[in-house]
Design goal:
Low-confidence stretches: none
Number of helices: 7
Structural class: alpha/beta
Strand content: 15-25%
Distance between the termini: 38 Å
Largest sheet: 6 strands, mixed
Radius of gyration: 16 Å
Order of helices and strands: EHEHEEEEHHHHH
Mean pLDDT: 95
Length: about 180
């Protein structure tokens, strides 16, 4: 029987839990991965509108998980948007905690149509705006805006999975990341 790694994900969103499961199965194929999603407050807006607010949401979620649960790893993902020099975009921050170490990563950036960004500045959430635009239901717990805007070639889960794997670099090789 394989040794187990227990992971707490700071969300019950099945896309986020599945991304963590897949990432850790790739990183640690010799282990049995037990991945559980829990409610964890971000303490930021439901739709973060800046890079800094999005990163803070992921950090707040991972800290909450560490303070309440016992696990080998804690992972939080926070999706947000910002208006950059080249236009609006959505992205996600990843926070991973293992023992005393915390690693922060960021997923790929998806350009957004200005009409979508303007709806977000009026208080709407990205998932709801995309559902209305593409006549879908609860897309944020499926492929996300990424799937809709890339014609299904990428998904929210694939972006989170890659971001988790990349953020794990500092945890996999801590001796290289000593400040």
């Amino acid at each position: 029987m394989k040794a187990a790694i227990r992971i707490i994900v700071g969300s019950k969103n099945p896309v986020k839990v599945a991304a963590a499961q897949v990432a850790f199965e790739r990183l640690f194929p010799e282990y049995q991965i037990q991945c559980d999603g829990v409610d964890a407050p971000s303490l930021v807006a439901d739709q973060p509108m800046t890079d800094a607010e999005t990163k803070l949401g992921a950090i707040n979620r991972v800290k909450h998980c560490q303070s309440v649960y016992q696990a080998d790893y804690y992972i939080a993902m926070e999706g947000g948007v910002d208006l950059f020099e080249h236009g609006p975009a959505t992205f996600a921050y990843i926070a991973i905690a293992h023992k005393e170490q915390v690693s922060i990563g960021r997923g790929a950036q998806l350009p957004l149509p200005m009409a979508v960004y303007q709806a977000l500045t009026q208080g709407q959430e990205l998932g709801h705006v995309m559902d209305a635009m593409f006549d879908t239901v609860n897309i944020k717990q499926k492929g996300g805006a990424i799937s809709l805007l890339t014609n299904g070639n990428e998904t929210r889960q694939s972006n989170y999975t890659q971001a988790i794997i990349l953020a794990m670099a500092a945890i996999l090789h801590p001796e290289l990341y000593i400040n």
